[in-house]
Amino acid sequence: MKIFVLTGAGISAESGISTFRDAGGLWEGHAIEEVATPEGFEANPGLVYQFYNLRRDQLFEVEPNAAHRALVELEKREGVELTLVTQNVDDLHERAGNREVIHMHGELRQAKCLVCGKSYRWSADLGAGDRCENCGGRMRPDIVWFGEMPYEMDLIESRLGEADLFIAVGTSGQVYPAAGYADMARRRGIPTIEFNLEPTDQSGRFSESICGKAGDTLPEWVREFEG
Ligand code: OAD
Predict the structure, then answer these.
(1) Ligand 1 atom at minimum distance from 9 CA
(2) Is the pLDDT assigned to residue 64 strictly greater than 80?
(3) Which of 92, 128, 166, 203 fits 185 for a cystine, CB–CB 3.0-4.6 Å?
């Protein structure tokens, strides 16, 4: 069975990483336009570098939780072919042990050249003085900001086009194109399941809504899943 899983900030909440929309539109005290748009970066690159440096540092203090581990279980299950697409920029799915993780909104542990676009693994702080080894250009966090095109769209849509089951975990379903995936799955007539703390505005798009902390509900669902 081909299972397509889309995760959002809610799956990392129990690891101690803040979600986006639960804090009144602010992300760790900043307006999204300040820290998650190309215009915000142009206006105040120092603030944006520092913001993502702090988020990157935080990765060293957090661990994958039971919901991340449940998706590793699911991937290992005989007969399951898992596509795991995350909107999260943390590395908790990889650290839990999932084999293939598609980061459609980029990764904190990557930096990208503003000139040639080459992307690098990046664990240290990033700043205005860092230069691309390829072309000498300035670097930026490899995060897909608002107004930019998410990564791997073709791959994601082709996997969605062949999935037998669609699962969304811990996402408010407010940011497109990810927010449209549940509808695409429904139009194909496959079952769609949402795991969230509470029914979201988007719950009508799902054939089943499982409420509670993903760290409780997802492991239980995976244990009972028979394919
Ligand atoms: P949001 O912060 O919008 O939504 C998080 C969702 O997780 C909410 O619906 C919560 O109810 C739910 N949630 C919180 N804790 C949970 C838990 N323990 N178990 C289950 N669900 C829980 O985050 P996303 O939907 O991921 O984009 O946001 C999408 C995108 O908007 C992000 O990738 C980011 C942001 O701006 C970029 O950075 C480009």
Answers:
(1) 26
(2) yes
(3) 166
Pocket of ligand 1 (CB under 6 A): 8-10, 13-14, 19-22, 32, 36, 87, 105, 144, 170-172, 174-175, 195-198, 200, 213-214
Q: For position 204, what pLDDT does the model report?
A: 82
pLDDT above 80 for 59: yes
Atom of ligand 1 nearest to the CA of 146: 39
For the entire predicted model, the pTM comes to 0.96
- Per-residue pLDDT of 124-183, as tens digits, reads 999 999 999 999 999 999 999 999 999 999 999 999 999 999 999 999 988 899 999 999
Q: Give the count of beta carbons closer than 10 Å to the beta carbon of residue 3.
A: 23
For 194-206, the pLDDT digits (tens) are: 999 998 877 788 9
Taking the centre of ligand 1 as the mean of its atom positions, its distance from the CA of residue 174, in whole angstroms, is 9
Q: In Å, how far are 19, 47, 49, 73, 195 from 171, measured between CA atoms? A: 9, 27, 26, 21, 8
* Active site amino acids: 105
Q: Which of 33, 175, 217 to mutate to test the pocket of ligand 1 (most atoms within 8 A of CB)?
A: 175
Sign of CA dihedral 30, 34, 38, 43: negative
Of all protein residues, whose CA lies closest to atom 22 belonging to ligand 1?
Answer: 10
